[in-house]
Amino acid sequence: MKIQLDCIPCQIRQSLAIAKKLTTDDFIIQKSLKEVLKIATNFEEYQDHFSLLYDMLERVKKINPKDDPYKNFKEQFNKICLNIVPDLKKIAYKPNSIDEIFEVGLRISLSGNALDVMQGGILSEEFLEDAVKKSLTQKINLKNVDLLKQNISGANKILFIGDNAGEIVFDKIFIEILKDTILKDNKNDKDKITYVVRGGPSLNDSTIEDAVMVGMDKVVKVITTGVDLPGAYLPKCSKEFRKAYESSDLIISKGQGNFESLLEENKNIFFLLKIKCETILNFFNGRHKIGEVVVEHSKI
Q: CA dist 160 to 11, 37, 63, 114, 133, Å?
């Protein structure tokens, strides 16, 4: 995505949030912020949104290199989500038809992206269950849901690019539903879907540690983007990821970060996300509102 001026303050806030997670030393935090502001001032030198963000985050990490600052938060989030899996599966398999089960499973996956824990949401089972209930009843484009189902059924290789910790649990439920329903007769269904996590710590996004913790690796093949950015930014992604990306005839992209990085790609991509800001809303030509969870095809 080309640089949007309204995104720059958000990138600065993200960088500052990481600096504060890495240390309580005001001097180091101030130094990090000053370096990030220098980069932001020269935004015109960057070709796109993620090249600018990459340099900001790298500068913060060099000033104070430590382990994943969100590790404990993500572990707690994953555990709470795992606790409600039995209830969510009961909800998902309650309908009678495969089409209905598919839609409910998709809505559960979407509800994971709607969780605003990074915007002050309180981690609890009640909070998660409420998000699922809202997603199950929210207006959604059923034509796009059916189109996604058709594409999943007909695809040879699917690359499912995940987003946040916690949310990965909801994605796993959806993938298990796919394997139990529309992919049931596919002998190579384990090889049909590859799930993608980040290549290193990046905000509250899922990494390989989260995938192992929730058992995603037991369901499908799991790879990383090869880069610690909150999006599948192809110029920085690993050869393994790019090979998987190019060989897949269907991409399922979760969240705003992946939307921003893949928006201009000429691939068969379905974007599943909650619209959280005016900048992203503007790309949908008035079809949605801020706060909606959406299923959109790349030919928007």
A: 25, 34, 33, 17, 24
> Could you give the angle at which helices 125-137 and 85-93 cross, rounded to 10 degrees?
20
Top-level class of domain 71-297: alpha beta
Q: Could you give the CA distance from residue 260 to residue 279 in angstroms, rounded to a whole number?
A: 10
- pTM for this one? 0.90
Tell me the pLDDT of the chain (300 aa) as tens digits.
788 888 899 889 888 988 888 888 899 999 999 999 999 999 988 888 888 988 998 888 888 777 788 888 899 999 999 999 999 999 999 887 999 999 999 999 998 887 755 444 566 788 777 878 888 888 899 999 999 999 999 999 999 999 999 999 999 999 999 999 998 776 555 679 999 999 999 888 999 999 999 999 999 999 999 999 999 999 999 999 999 999 999 999 999 999 999 998 999 999 999 888 888 888 887 788 888 889 999 875
Pair of tokens at residue 217: 């690796």
Name every residue whose Cβ is closer than 8 Å to that of residue 183 and which is 6 or more positions away in sequence: 152, 153, 189, 192
- Rounded to 10°, the helix 255-262/49-63 angle is 120
Instruction: Quote the CA–CA distance of 115 and 133 in Å, as a whole number.
Output: 12
DSSP helix/strand/coil, 294? strand
- Euclidean distance between CA atoms 269 and 249, whole angstroms: 9
Question: For residues 244 and 194, is the Cβ–Cβ distance under 8 A?
Answer: yes
Sheet order of strands, 250-254 included = 221-224, 193-197, 158-161, 250-254, 269-274, 293-297
